[in-house]
Amino acid sequence: xxxxxxxxxxxxxxxxxxxxxxxxxxxxxxxxxxxxxxxxxxxxxxxxxxxxxxxxxxxxxxxxxxxxxxxxxxxxxxxxxxxxxxxxxxxxxxxxxxxxxxxxxxxxxxxxxxxxxxxxxxxxxxxxxxxxxxxxxxxxxxxxxxxxxxxxxxxxxxxxxxxxxxxxxxxxxxxxxxxxxxxxxxxxxxxxxxxxxxxxxxxxxxxxxxxxxxxxxxxxxxxxxxxxxxxxxxxxxxxxxxxxxxxxx
Amino acid sequence: xxxxxxxxxxxxxxxxxxxxxxxxxxxxxxxxxxxxxxxxxxxxxxxxxxxxxxxxxxxxxxxxxxxxxxxxxxxxxxxxxxxxxxxxxxxxxxxxxxxxxxxxxxxxxxxxxxxxxxxxxxxxxxxxxxxxxxxxxxxxxxxxxxxxxxxxxxxxxxxxxxxxxxxxxxxxxxxxxxxxxxxxxxxxxxxxxxxxxxxxxxxxxxxxxxxxxxxxxxxxxxxxxxxxxxxxxxxxxxxxxxxxxxxxxx
Lengths: 249, 250
Description:
The structure holds 2 protein chains of 2 kinds. Chain A is an all-alpha fold. Chain A has one domain (55-248): MetI-like (MetI-like fold), CATH 1.10.3720. Chain A contains 10 helices and no strands. Chain A starts with a helix and ends with a helix. Chain B has a single domain, classed as MetI-like fold (Orthogonal Bundle).
């Protein structure tokens, strides 16, 4: 069913080319007042990236994102393993996480801001709020779907609980957990950027929002393209690793 | 099952009680958060005063509009894409990475191009939800047993009749899953973009209250949105479950 790696790389390249062509066509039909052309945006992006101060914004976003992701992974995996192991707490808490997944979490951001203050901690907290849930949900699923025969074998071999986790659960659950980490990665990034867009004084989201007031269209398009390109390429890479892991298992 | 539900309510109740105690003991100061019973009281007052009716109607109308658009366009696009193998292969990377891209990053761009009205918000909500409909519908169409389509051909059904009587019901549960996600995404899209920057709606009222330190308005509205989205999602989940159960029994 699935295309070979070469084919899907080709498809991806074709898609990018097609999107740029559509962009150019829209530009020709709308004109300068509507949006800036791909070439112009590329030129502006180069100027923006090399401009003094851009590095600090990028660093700020990436640092918040990185800390949030580390926290999400640590807590997500521990919570996931616990809820996956313990049937009762899993049954009680898992639907709650699933519900939390579908609510507009942006509305909770003011609470974080009031509790943690305007700055990096609130940004990190909001990233964690987004990234933690998928990691928990996928880990719970992965642990629960471990084939019973493997666990029985572990019991026959008289493995301790820790040894069971290390030698049986981890290897068998890793592909599924990786899927959770992949989704968690994307959502943490989304959460961090959203937080910056609502209230912050630094970061890429801040660059986007200040450009609205100045009506600086090239800057908006450049930052948007940068964010989209980063998210899409990292996620493509993770997706590729994800599929490899699942095929091996 | 019912015991589990009891446990779940007990956990929620305990969490609220803990908040109540922390607030009353001033561990959490009133500037940060009010006690839960005060929030409920304020929510009642706010709703009874009718101050928020305009905002509620606006948010709901935009959500429904983008949902209808997303489901309609999603179904049509999926039906058109279904048999076009090459086009689907080309679009596959887009669908696979779509939800990894922060769609909200396009919001400033839409504001500058279309102005600060309803259109940018509806576009964001539409973009968030349409792909869920497309992907799940395609999934459903792929899984229709070929024998059903053969039967339709033997019966001499036309294209429209085949679509209505065979294809749609057979792909039904998958489409419902897509719609379920679309409901959540449309709501998130509208509320989120109202919240970031807008001129009306519940999301706007929350961010307005936040900027003016009006906790007596902000917390009740946040609770209102949480309740609304939980109720909305559990309704759609229930619909999906009955759909799947009916399919299972047949």
